[in-house]
Amino acid sequence: MSDLNRKTDSAGKRDKGGAPSPSLPLPGKDDPSPLTRHPSLIPVIAIDGPSASGKGTVAQRVANQLGYHYLDSGALYRLVALAARQRGISWQDAPALAAMTRSLNIQFENGSILLDGLDVSEDLRAEEMSKGASEVAVHPGVRAALLDLQHGLRKLPGLVADGRDMATVVFPDAQTKIYLTASAETRAERRYKQLLEKGKKADLGEILRDLQQRDARDSQRSTAPLQQCKDACLLETSNMSIEEAVRFVIDAFERQKK
Length: 258
Description:
- The protein is an alpha/beta fold.
- The protein has a single domain (34-257), classed as Rossmann fold (3-Layer(aba) Sandwich), CATH 3.40.50.
- 45% of the residues lie in helices and 13% in strands.
- Helix 1 packs across helix 10 (242-257), helix 2 packs across helix 5 and helix 8 (184-197) packs across helix 9.
């Protein structure tokens, strides 16, 4: 499953697994759909899992096949890390980060993510921002500031959301909950190959240590720690292909629709 971690650079772009999923508009007061008054009626597939598990690739392909919107919640935390770096705010400064996050001008347009009107989709995929996302995500104020935004992205015909706390905190009423994981060694190997394919230098041992540190940070934080909720289906992908993982999620969703 060497390409399990490959996905497009932002929500809504075409992935090799199917047609493009709809772009995600920000929540607005002029949405005419009556279901906006009852968002719990809009189906959600929530996929949680550790870093580099491939949940983003699987989530986006599921969204493409179903014609649903796709939310990469990790991109929001990378966005916070990027904005903090641009503004000279430390990733450890919880009060400043929370205040900054509440004031960010974020837009989703045509599959791209805009910060203050500028497309930062490519910048968010830098390895440094991935590390930064894990660091800023430990702060309760940052998570609270992003919660309403994520709730507002629950749009018809449905949403596939991936992250660390999609099923446990953000969408606890999700119709289908998946905990997608793989061994740390498998995830490190996938990330290592991915970086080499991009022409970047990589050290497998360093990648493994970094993933283990992220796992510990994500699972031990006081607010919304990474964990499998009781009603989530476990999807262990160490020995699975992308297609098998996608089929597992869609099959679970179809069963729970009945």
